[in-house]
Each structure stands twice: as structure tokens, then as C-alpha cells.
Amino acid sequence: MGEMKISATIITCNEESNIARAIESLRCCDEIVVVDSGSVDGRREVAASLGARVVETEWRGYAKQKNFAAAEALHDWILSLDADEALSEALEAEIWEIKKRGPRFDGYAAPRRAQYCGRWILHGGWYPDRKLRLYRREKAEWVGEYVHESVVLREGEAARLEGDILHFTCGSLSEHLKTVDRYTTLAARDLVARGAKIPIGRLLADPAWTFVRTYIIRRGFLDGVEGVSIAWMAALYTFLKYAKARGG
Asked: How does pLDDT run across 105-149, given as a tens digit for each residue?
């Protein structure tokens, strides 16, 4: 099958992140491609100084941008990270082992562990949150027009890895509110594009159910005060998504 060479891809725009942490975790990759769309905070210069190849282009939307990044890569194997993510040492070691032995699958999915307001979150539906991020380019693509983009294998099989992708999410409630506002706008556009109908009963009931599911059924209460915040924010996300789709 030949030597396995991996291109890491990261897309960036003007959003809070620590791209240096992401790049420095990618020692198992043979190149790093950063696709940037209008950042003005010096992120491009940081990425280039750490050995990444920076490509500047207009914003296409999350899935299209990630497919563009994969097309720009030199190698057929793609490892896609967001700018606020990093490989754990355990996951990096697993990928080194795959490279050494040769890949037996066309994609690999890893659990994603999120840090929220300084605490690692293990409940509430946030973990293991497994994501397919290492994949053979010609057999997979990113899908999702507005939000919650993901990789889909058109053919072949995917395997599970055990090491974590580390996701450094919101550092404060204020940051979380800004994120919720941005993503609910995109989610509402998706609902409108699909012609979804949101009756008033659903607008009232679904946020409450989201809180119960997140905090109680999925044991978010085990994550302390942060678990409470996550459950309330999940309920708010559901309400705002529906309200915006109704024209609010």
C-alpha cells in the first residue's frame, strides 16, 4: 500500500482559538495546511512561523471550506482539526502506530474531550463525542450546509481510536453566549432551508426537554456547576434556534 503520509488541515477565520497549540500537537503529520479567511489577529503569521503552509481564500461555509483544505493538501490522507482543538499524546501515538504498520481502514474516528470554563467535561452528552477526522481523501468528504459539518465515507470502513481529540471550548459564559448566538443563526438558516415548521408547542417544550436530557438523563449534574451551565445553554440554544427560524 506504500508509505502513509498525512496532511493536517486547519481552517481559521476571526474566532478565538490557540492555533499554535493545534499545530504543535501535529508532529505525526507530514505537512500542515492552514486555510484562512480574513483573520486580522496575526494568526496567519503564527501558523507560518510554526511551519504550516497558509492558504488565504474567501469563506465558503464550514463543510466546503474543509473540503477545499483537503483538496489543497499534498497527501491523500487528511487529518482535520479545528483551530481550537489539539491531539492528545495518546492519540498522536496511535496515529504514529498506524503510519508504522500501514492503514487497514479508510477512516479513523477518535473521541473528543471538551474543556469548558477550565474543566474537562465527561457527561451531558459531551463525551465521548466521537469524530471521524483521519480519512483517505478520495473516499470521503465533508457534508453539512450550515452547521454541524461532519466527514462521511463514501466507501470503505472506519475504525475507532482510543486517544482523545482535545477541544478547548468556551473559557467563560460570555464567550459561550456569543458562540450560541452565532451558531443558532446558522442552525435557524438550516431549518428554514429545509422548510421545517416550528409550532409554538415545540418552541416551548423542546428547550425544557433539552435541559432534562442534558442535565439528568445524560448525567450532566456530575460535571458540577459547569454541568448546570452547559444544560441551560443547551436549552437556550434550542429555543434561539427555533425562535430565529420563526423569524424572531
From this structure: 999 999 999 999 999 999 999 999 999 999 999 999 999 988 889
- The CA–CA distances, whole Å, from 208 to 132, 148, 191, 227 equal 31, 22, 20, 16
Kindly report, residue by residue over 32-90, the tens digit of the pLDDT.
999 999 877 777 888 889 999 999 999 999 999 999 999 999 999 999 999 999 999 99
Predicted TM-score of the model (pTM):
0.92
> Burial, 199: exposed, middle or buried (Cβ in 10 Å; 0-12, 13-18, 19+)?
exposed
